[in-house]
Amino acid sequence: MSTTENKSVEITKGINGLDKVILREINGSTAEVYLYGGHVTSWKNEHGEELLFVSSKAIFKPPKAIRGGIPLCFPQFSNLGTLEAHGFARNRVWTVDIDPPPFPSNTTNRVFVDLLLKPTEEDLKIWPHSFEYRLRVTLGPAGDLMLTSRIRNTNTDGKPFTFTFAYHTYFSVSDISEVRVEGLETLDFLDNMKNRERYTEQGDAITFESEVDRIYLSTPTKIAILDHEKKRTFVIRKDGLPDAVVWNPWDKKAKAMTDFWR
């Protein structure tokens, strides 16, 4: 965990007394992550503007998952398996690693915290694989938010396991009809509104005129969400997560959401 005298990393109490970590970057951007779920619930730029959406109906009380922000889907995304939807990592209490591996020496001015999750005996009954999940949440010098996941197989017999995973990110946007997503043109997608039938994206960008729930396949490392009303662009860069989900429930006052999974 990165710490400085100006409290760039602070562990404190959040809603309903749940523990959370606040990251403060020197230029004024901030992020907060709850130990319950390893869940990022806030990301603000240097002007104090909130960049993530958290529902006003979110219940910060276990075992209910927090609604909004960046939920972690592990070891299962959606209903693609035998577990409850999106797995159990978002419903578990993580721990802070007070002595994490450092960043490479050529990176400076980054504020970060490492959270760890290991399976409980109850977890092993429903998903019999031992693991250590390390989540690093980082704020860069320009206010960039970076999440890095490392999942280590700790099975004593060396038996491999497979999993699906997603950062189920909710971005804060204005009128959804003023939002477009670029970078997914000409790609194939599975339409969750039509029993995951496969189609090819025809438009030069994704716009929203009705509910959208799609899994885009083999996506590029860079995707952009343009919010014309707020004059704001989210540039999403990813590595190791080939597919992207674009979902919006067609509520103009809500959000557009993009997440990445494998």
TrEMBL record:
InterPro entries: Aldose_1/G6P_1-epimerase, G6P_1-epimerase, Gal_mutarotase_sf_dom, GH-type_carb-bd. Its EC number is 5.1.3.15. The keyword Isomerase applies. GO terms for molecular function: carbohydrate binding; glucose-6-phosphate 1-epimerase activity. This is glucose-6-phosphate 1-epimerase. One of its GO terms (biological process) is carbohydrate metabolic process. Belongs to the glucose-6-phosphate 1-epimerase family. The keyword rRNA processing does not apply. The lineage of its organism: Eukaryota, Viridiplantae, Streptophyta, Embryophyta, Tracheophyta. PANTHER family: APOSPORY-ASSOCIATED PROTEIN C-RELATED, GLUCOSE-6-PHOSPHATE 1-EPIMERASE. It holds the Pfam family Aldose_epim. It catalyses: alpha-D-glucose 6-phosphate = beta-D-glucose 6-phosphate.
